[in-house]
């Protein structure tokens, strides 16, 4: 008999079926026992009245893997309106050791560090699994949106000879006797690939040797990177970002609807055009001194609130960040060269995306590096491509875990990461 | 005026349009000059008769980025039957330095090492770009097939505290003062995630410190990993693998049809059921001694030939590899415990995929490690999940670059890798 998932039971009332999964919970009442079996699709209630089956179920601790053959019976009070009656229960492995916290309660009561220490079982809790399903759907929406716009997916090196952004916060390793580094971003490679495909994206791990412990930083995270050529300026990039986020949210709504319901979420709407303010205006709105070189988290929160009340938008672009605060490959605003054609996107008052137009002329790169007192040699392989013709281009990067954390309202990005890596955590 | 791609010109005969791209080639004849512009979609022939425009074009070396405004004119001898006439040509950047090899010739004449040294420009050659488009389409087909079967995409750590498969061939790094390793595979994590989602996949980089230089090994490659629970045995895994490869080939045919045509490929057919032979039978077919513990490359070639002539199949499963040659988590064949429920898939006589059923009972893991004289402690975080209930499961991993190389007939996997990493190569 073919196994079916719990979500298909309601279409099979009266039939004898086989389900399989984990013992989620047992409730041993005086006259009847309930066995709740959890599978990938949800929960199945199994009603046990036979004394021999009851004895068998009593000996199966939570998380034991079992299969159940029984009759699908309508019951308005059971999950999805059906339950299995007259069951035969067979374990598919030895009795499990119960996990160190109850997975059947509505919320995990264990502290986050305990959950992370026991991630393989903590992730089985429906709330933790739901966040990861939302992440998977968001990435699917990211790709679908870009595929439809002729972007090509690329896979680039994660071990590099030169640190990408600066000398700080990189992991060093030995590469067959040569010094090497884990890539902090695919920035250089996605730019180079604009020379090949014009429009590219990559979904992959990036590594930051963050020396401090915060609720929004990980030492490895999943970066959703986009780069496109033949732009007029950063506004073309912002338009693609808007559509990409809209596609991500739409796919979360479509593919992860169960997860969204499990977490009781209201997904944000996406304006046809995301409101945008220049950095100088953002400082004014945030009540910051006009000579501040960057936005502090408190400023971002104020701006998020402003976007919500003024524009009814969960999203806000801040454009024109000062060049002094952006990496050397950033394209300046031709009209105000102290400001950049770079932007951040705030989502509910938190920086979610950084992007902008890049330099595309070889002499501009040489000048930018010289102005920062940086040598050219470490960037030789990267800069060489610009000698051979590169179009005006730009791009952005979305941190997947940060996006999901903000979407589900998680206070700590580790709540939505399967196996986080940070200053203290290298296992499991 | 909105820029259009070269592929859209044939629908716009008579119109004035704007195209943009790279100067692919110039042919300066006595009475007329031809400018060939390359964009993401292909080539556009621009006919130049005006002396001033001709002078401008003469000053634009190959790979200079230009935009051209002109009239779409039918010409049966031009690419796609159309060309641009009466053009205005404007560079979008400084004149390019011509690349060290001609990109406009049908094949790159530079040696592979030279191409790899200059990858950002070599990849612009239509043949090199085509292989990467095929890779992107194959990955899209991989995901689409698995998404349709309720698999969930996961992202797992690439830095781990314990080497996955054995102590050899790992890259070591310093993780905030602790020893750590680059992950050789997501094997343990995908198994753990079977406990959460039952069916998972991951597309991501894996790292092997391969100490020798071969045409089929890279130190970083893209692994397409699958794992699924509630299987009867390895044959359920093989069925999913067959469907996944069929989906990959179908998406290559659909999405990368232009690339397939550029390379003049005939894609392999996929049998409804891939022929399978047991390891002992494979030795006999290959003419190897019956006590050989593994298949040598020459044996694999013989088997590939046999599958083609006997079954008309480019694919062949070899099942039941000896346990002694498989990793400790491999499930034995219950009927013949010296042989495994593990398999390899040969594609045109080359090992492409390794997979099988895994152990799922905690005591079996302890026994397997003890039998190999391996300590339990380094695997504690992994093994713990099996104490808490895991279903019978199995999976497989496809090396993306190796698949594409075999598909396009590349002799060296580096020909189909954008920026390969190996014993000697850490840049660009």
From TrEMBL, chains A, B:
<dbReference type="InterPro" id="IPR002312">
    <property type="entry name" value="Asp/Asn-tRNA-synth_IIb"/>
</dbReference>
<keyword id="KW-0963">Cytoplasm</keyword>
<dbReference type="Pfam" id="PF01336">
    <property type="entry name" value="tRNA_anti-codon"/>
</dbReference>
<dbReference type="GO" id="GO:0003723">
    <property type="term" value="F:RNA binding"/>
</dbReference>
<feature type="binding site">
    <location>
        <position position="351"/>
    </location>
    <ligand>
        <name>ATP</name>
    </ligand>
</feature>
<feature type="binding site">
    <location>
        <position position="208"/>
    </location>
    <ligand>
        <name>L-aspartate</name>
    </ligand>
</feature>
<dbReference type="InterPro" id="IPR004364">
    <property type="entry name" value="Aa-tRNA-synt_II"/>
</dbReference>
<dbReference type="GO" id="GO:0017101">
    <property type="term" value="C:aminoacyl-tRNA synthetase multienzyme complex"/>
</dbReference>
<feature type="site" description="Important for tRNA non-discrimination">
    <location>
        <position position="79"/>
    </location>
</feature>
<comment type="function">
    <text>Aspartyl-tRNA synthetase with relaxed tRNA specificity since it is able to aspartylate not only its cognate tRNA(Asp) but also tRNA(Asn). Reaction proceeds in two steps: L-aspartate is first activated by ATP to form Asp-AMP and then transferred to the acceptor end of tRNA(Asp/Asn).</text>
</comment>
<feature type="binding site">
    <location>
        <begin position="216"/>
        <end position="218"/>
    </location>
    <ligand>
        <name>ATP</name>
    </ligand>
</feature>
<dbReference type="Pfam" id="PF00152">
    <property type="entry name" value="tRNA-synt_2"/>
</dbReference>
<keyword id="KW-0648">Protein biosynthesis</keyword>
<feature type="binding site">
    <location>
        <position position="358"/>
    </location>
    <ligand>
        <name>L-aspartate</name>
    </ligand>
</feature>
<feature type="domain" description="Aminoacyl-transfer RNA synthetases class-II family profile">
    <location>
        <begin position="142"/>
        <end position="428"/>
    </location>
</feature>
<keyword id="KW-0547">Nucleotide-binding</keyword>
<dbReference type="GO" id="GO:0005524">
    <property type="term" value="F:ATP binding"/>
</dbReference>
<dbReference type="InterPro" id="IPR004365">
    <property type="entry name" value="NA-bd_OB_tRNA"/>
</dbReference>
<dbReference type="GO" id="GO:0050560">
    <property type="term" value="F:aspartate-tRNA(Asn) ligase activity"/>
</dbReference>
<dbReference type="InterPro" id="IPR012340">
    <property type="entry name" value="NA-bd_OB-fold"/>
</dbReference>
<keyword id="KW-0436">Ligase</keyword>
<comment type="similarity">
    <text>Belongs to the class-II aminoacyl-tRNA synthetase family. Type 2 subfamily.</text>
</comment>
<protein>
    <recommendedName>
        <fullName>Aspartate--tRNA(Asp/Asn) ligase</fullName>
        <ecNumber>6.1.1.23</ecNumber>
    </recommendedName>
</protein>
<dbReference type="GO" id="GO:0005829">
    <property type="term" value="C:cytosol"/>
</dbReference>
<keyword id="KW-0067">ATP-binding</keyword>
<dbReference type="GO" id="GO:0006422">
    <property type="term" value="P:aspartyl-tRNA aminoacylation"/>
</dbReference>
<dbReference type="GO" id="GO:0004815">
    <property type="term" value="F:aspartate-tRNA ligase activity"/>
</dbReference>
<comment type="subunit">
    <text>Homodimer.</text>
</comment>
<dbReference type="InterPro" id="IPR004523">
    <property type="entry name" value="Asp-tRNA_synthase_2"/>
</dbReference>
<feature type="region of interest" description="Aspartate">
    <location>
        <begin position="187"/>
        <end position="190"/>
    </location>
</feature>
<dbReference type="InterPro" id="IPR045864">
    <property type="entry name" value="aa-tRNA-synth_II/BPL/LPL"/>
</dbReference>
<feature type="binding site">
    <location>
        <begin position="208"/>
        <end position="210"/>
    </location>
    <ligand>
        <name>ATP</name>
    </ligand>
</feature>
<feature type="binding site">
    <location>
        <position position="165"/>
    </location>
    <ligand>
        <name>L-aspartate</name>
    </ligand>
</feature>
<keyword id="KW-0030">Aminoacyl-tRNA synthetase</keyword>
<dbReference type="InterPro" id="IPR006195">
    <property type="entry name" value="aa-tRNA-synth_II"/>
</dbReference>
<feature type="binding site">
    <location>
        <position position="354"/>
    </location>
    <ligand>
        <name>L-aspartate</name>
    </ligand>
</feature>
<feature type="binding site">
    <location>
        <begin position="399"/>
        <end position="402"/>
    </location>
    <ligand>
        <name>ATP</name>
    </ligand>
</feature>
């Amino acid at each position: 008999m073919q196994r079916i998932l719990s979500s298909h039971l309601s279409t099979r009332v009266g039939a004898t079926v086989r389900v399989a999964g984990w013992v989620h919970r047992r409730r041993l009442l005086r006259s009847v026992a309930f066995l709740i079996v959890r599978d990938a699709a949800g929960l199945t209630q199994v009603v046990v009245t036979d004394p021999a089956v009851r004895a068998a179920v009593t000996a199966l601790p939570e998380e034991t893997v079992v299969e159940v053959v029984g009759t699908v019976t309508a019951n308005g009070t059971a999950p999805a309106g059906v339950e299995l009656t007259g069951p035969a229960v067979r374990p598919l492995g030895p009795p499990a050791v119960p996990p160190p916290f109850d997975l059947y309660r509505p919320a995990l009561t264990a502290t986050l560090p305990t959950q992370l220490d026991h991630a393989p079982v903590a992730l089985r809790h429906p709330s933790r699994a739901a966040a990861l399903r939302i992440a998977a759907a968001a990435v699917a929406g990211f790709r679908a949106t870009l595929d439809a716009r002729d972007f090509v997916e690329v896979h680039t090196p994660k071990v590099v000879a030169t640190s990408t952004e600066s000398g700080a916060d990189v992991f060093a390793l030995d590469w067959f006797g040569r010094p090497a580094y884990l890539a902090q971003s695919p920035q250089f490679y996605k730019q180079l690939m604009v020379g090949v495909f014009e429009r590219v994206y990559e979904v992959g791990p990036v590594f930051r040797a963050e020396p401090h412990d915060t609720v929004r930083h990980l030492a490895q995270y999943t970066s959703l990177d986009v780069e496109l050529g033949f732009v007029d300026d950063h506004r073309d990039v912002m338009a693609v970002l808007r559509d990409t986020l809209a596609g991500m949210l739409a796919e979360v709504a479509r593919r992860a609807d169960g997860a969204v319901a499990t977490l009781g979420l209201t997904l944000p709407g996406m304006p046809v055009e995301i409101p945008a303010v220049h950095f100088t205006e953002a400082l004014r709105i945030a009540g910051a001194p006009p000579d501040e070189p960057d936005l502090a988290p408190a400023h971002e929160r104020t701006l998020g609130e402003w976007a919500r009340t003024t524009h009814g938008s969960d999203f806000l672009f801040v454009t024109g960040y000062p060049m002094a605060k952006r990496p050397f490959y950033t394209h300046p605003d031709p009209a105000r060269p102290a400001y950049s054609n770079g932007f951040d996107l705030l989502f509910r008052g938190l920086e979610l995306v950084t992007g902008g137009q890049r330099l595309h002329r070889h002499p501009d790169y040489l000048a930018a590096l010289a102005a920062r007192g940086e040598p050219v040699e470490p960037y030789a392989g990267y800069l060489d491509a610009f000698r051979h013709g590169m179009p005006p281009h730009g791009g952005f990067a979305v941190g997947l875990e940060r996006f999901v954390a903000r979407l589900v309202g998680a206070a700590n990005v580790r709540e939505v990461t399967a196996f986080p890596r940070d200053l203290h955590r290298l296992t499991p």
